[in-house]
Amino acid sequence: MKHQIKIKVNGDEYSLAVHPWRTLNEVLRDDLNLTGTKLGCGTGDCGTCAVMVDDRIVSSCLTLAVSVNGKSVKTVEGLAPSGEELHPVQDAFVKTGAIQCGYCTSGMEMAAVHLLAHNPSPTEKEIRAGLSGHLCRCTGYNQIVEAVSTAAETMRDPNRKR
Fold this sequence. Notes:
The chain has helices at about 25-30, 90-95, 105-120, 125-130, 140-155; strands at about 5-10, 10-20, 50-55, 55-60, 70-75. It is an alpha+beta fold. It has a five-stranded mixed sheet, covered by helices on one side. It contains five helices and five strands. About 35% of the residues lie in helices and about 15% in strands. The chain has two domains: about 5-80, Beta-grasp domain (Ubiquitin-like (UB roll)), CATH 3.10.20.30; about 90-155, [2Fe-2S]-binding domain (DNA polymerase, domain 1). Helix 2 (about 90-95) packs across helix 5.
């Protein structure tokens, strides 16, 4: 039996009928065609599927879709909704070479945006702690930390040359 849910994803409202066992990741990717959110391990260990639900970072592979009924979800596609200009975190990932194979990127970017929303001037140690639980198989951690630091500077001073 399907359950009716209403969710807001990246500012758009959706009413969906979903089976109670379907994950948020499945609904985002399969029903809403928001494929920026990846599925990595499927057990919540890698951080690849991270999204924000009501300003909390969650693993969408472990979050049942019915549990987000009435809530607001932000995916990596929602970071730059106009499509004209990248979010400062996304821009910094590109410019610092933090994107390698790209599989971990959306989860890393979501974690970075969440971190910077709560700590606009993080130290390197705080950046690494904020990204803990997000795995990069390409070992691009130094560039990822540099990207978050660069994004933090840009977000504090938008007129700063990039």
